[in-house]
Design brief:
Layout (H helix, E strand, L loop, with lengths): L23 H14 L11 E2 L6 E8 L5 E2 L2 E2 H14 L3 E13 L4 H18 L3 E9 L7 E11 L15 E4 L5 H11 L15 H7 L6 E5 L5 H13 L3 E4 L7 H10 L13 E4 L4 H9 L8 E6 L8 E4 L5 E3 L13
Helix pairs in contact: 2-3
């Protein structure tokens, strides 16, 4: 018999920072208020959705509220492009076009806004995706925190590549394209002036070329997911839940940079729940694992790709376990709420 701790109830019934963390509180908010209002909730909640009536077109939208606006390795502008391009890529799509909406607080220096826009434009050009339309609003001082950015992306799926969070299968190999924990620890360190930012930088980057490299494997690629809010732990739990499978990963196989490990030890954080913006998880058929790793490693953004685990042939559906460095097993839970607010 398994006894689970209930999600805390909030007597004052207000929105908390944790509701935006991508963990159990986010799921609660969506299930109770958002999805019923828009007749949603049918099937898994993917990073991007198929556009109704257009079978191979994919659409995704995202809002970025990161604080601070600039951090080692990136800024809110490049992050907005990468985040939306990556959400399209996780459904097997190449980006076709982006929209851009800005909410700017009165008093933001024009030089800072210009720097963000230049970075955003550079990231879009490097990703090969045009910004085709948008909107700009300015609100009074104190009505927003300097600058919020929203981007919507439309993409077209690669022929034969149809990944979904509900398609993981027993025996699948679980692959990771690179190190974890860099983005979240970098943003937190910069915001709080902790000093770690001299040793680490955000991994923010576009991943669609990695997905294109996997496209020849076609139906052998079952699931793609970028572990952003909630980190690797949240991504794996979502996949295990939606696919109704048991997943096990090896702690020794998960690449955690030394600087990230040191920062997490000092701050009491688990690297497995720290946000990433430049790596992805892939569930592929076991006989395609070597080919998938070779494809990922053929590009700079996938040079450190590794196999970190597998989908078990049997076990409780929805459960993720971690085989620790000493050989024990522990359940890797879905994060509850927000440990690192405002990181994307």
């Amino acid at each position: 018999m398994t006894i689970e701790c209930p999600t805390p109830r909030h007597e004052d019934e207000v929105v908390l920072l944790g509701h935006g963390a991508g963990g159990r509180l986010t799921a609660e908010l969506l299930d109770r208020l958002v999805l019923p209002a828009v007749d949603g909730g049918q099937g898994p909640l993917e990073d991007a959705a198929l556009l109704p009536g257009y079978r191979e077109l994919v659409i995704s939208t995202d809002s970025f509220v990161v604080s601070p606006l600039f951090f080692p390795g990136g800024d809110i502008g490049s992050l907005a492009v990468h985040g939306t391009v990556n959400d399209l890529a996780m459904r097997g799509a190449r980006p076709l076009a982006l929209t851009l909406s800005l909410i700017v607080e009165e008093g933001l220096p024009l030089a800072e806004l210009g720097a963000v826009m230049n970075s955003l434009g550079k990231a879009a050009r490097e990703a090969g995706v045009p910004v085709v339309t948008g909107d700009t609003k300015v609100v009074g001082r104190g009505a927003a925190d300097r600058l919020f950015v929203n981007t919507t992306g439309v993409g077209q799926r690669h022929a034969g590549l149809h990944p979904s969070a509900a398609l993981a299968r027993p025996g699948d190999a679980v692959l990771l394209s690179g190190p974890i924990g860099l983005h979240g620890t970098t943003v937190l360190s910069t915001r709080e002036r902790l000093g770690f930012e001299t040793d680490i930088a955000s991994d923010t980057r576009a991943l669609h070329r990695l997905v294109a490299a996997l496209a020849p494997l076609g139906a052998a690629v079952h699931v793609l997911r970028d572990p952003t809010r909630g980190g690797l732990a949240a991504a794996l739990n979502e996949i295990a839940r939606d696919s109704r499978v048991a997943v096990e990963i090896e702690e020794s196989a998960v690449p955690v940079p030394q600087a990230v490990a040191g920062a997490c030890d000092l701050l009491g954080l688990d690297p497995l729940i720290v946000a990433n913006e430049g790596c992805m998880v892939a569930f592929v058929a076991a006989d395609a694992a070597d080919g998938a790793l070779a494809a990922l490693r053929s590009l700079p953004e996938g040079a450190q790709a590794v196999r970190i685990g597998e989908v078990l042939p049997q076990g409780p559906g929805g459960r993720v376990t971690l085989r620790t460095l000493v050989g024990a097993r522990r359940i890797l839970e879905m994060p509850l709420g927000e440990q690192l607010p405002r990181i994307c």
